[in-house]
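Batch manifest, entry 17 of 40.
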Amino acid sequence: MALSKRELFLKRRLRVRNKLRAVNTGKPRLSVHRSNKNISVQLIDDVEGRTLASASSLEKDLGVVGKNNVDAAAKVGQAIAERAKKAGIDAAYFDRGGFLFHGKVKALAEAAREAGLKI
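Output type: structure tokens
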């Protein structure tokens, strides 16, 4: 029996996350979620199980509400890097989830790197 698209996505997400846990040295995880309309990102401390910082294209102060494009993802990446600096975080592991590293996910990661977050 063939797996559905959703089941394949979940397997890919778990594979990526388990590889990150294997090499984790105490750095937080930068977890990305992309829907059809929005993109959001969280800095998560897996040891304590809490979110340290977050950013989303739904936030009105970023000026990207209603825009589902690479530019909006880049602004979200810049925002998370700035919020990470305020929280005292300069490095993190990039958790792309089950999403491929291209398009919006890649733009978000590159914008965060340019803004000073080491991924």
